[in-house]
Amino acid sequence: MNSLVVALILAAFPVAAEQPLKWSVSLGSSGGVTGGGRTSIIRSSGDIVSEKWATATSPHESEVTGYVNQEELEVIQRLLADPNLHKAQVSKPGNMSRVLQVNYGEIKKTFTVEVNEPFPEPVERLSREVARALSAAKQEE
Asked: Measured between alpha carbons, how far is residue 139 from residues 63, 117, 133 in Å?
């Protein structure tokens, strides 16, 4: 009888409360004649959200496409916590641009460069790690 009462009490609570988003980082490109583009977003929860849009004014299509393992998340979080990252400034968009966007607590920054140009350090280091994590990520099935 006691186990039934405990089971009923436990059933009243949600199985897993959703973790609040601590940070997110996105890496993508856009521009050209249409202004369309695509980006991949890694959230602190490990989810990867892929977004694409056909033109600069069209709505973004988003879907969760995979997830990053805990080790990768820890590396990215360390890079996001680097104070030198938040001091960096770069906005040199071209016809086709690479964009790295950081949301880290209250900090929201966007770094933009011509598609074939590197970001300044330590932004480039974060960009490389995000790209590596995305390529190694587990895909949704």
From this structure: 12, 29, 12
